[in-house]
Amino acid sequence: GSLTAQGEYVFAVTKRRFPRNLQLFRVGLDGSASPKGFNRTFEPSRNGPAGLAFSPNGKWLYGTLAGNAVYRLPADTEGGKLGSPFIGKPEAGADQDHLKSPLGLAVDPQGRIYVADCGNNRIQVFTAEGKWEKSISVPEPRYVALHPKTGALYVLSSPAPAKEMKFKLVKFES
Asked: Could you tell me which residues come within 8 angstroms of residue 9 by beta carbon, excluding any fewer than 6 positions away?
């Protein structure tokens, strides 16, 4: 999940039967439910939780909502189609323009988007406009977070076989 500029927490729930839907819920920090939940239909290849992050100005919601891509939606959207990927392509790949099983997302104060590109063992960093900036090698990154004061990047990875459920937290200085 992710916090909005208005202080709401947004989290995703997936429906496992067909057609698979992703529903986003908004909850106020005081525990109140927001009526602004909305549904998304996504590709059968996406079974896991969606990574979510908001732009610094709160205008955009970024999410690993379908396939091997990051989508950008207006933060106040009520529903509709996902449209075209903002970052990546529907098909998996290993070059700068492709992702493979993206999971977690984070956005820094400058609007750069950090994507845990799990299938390619890297964190991909993109500008606020969606242009590739750099890659950071990390074995099987799952989630990313940025420290709000220091800018340090934290990555939760699971380099061990999935059945062992061993995770490693890696810190990169800003």
From this structure: 1, 2, 3, 26, 27, 28, 29
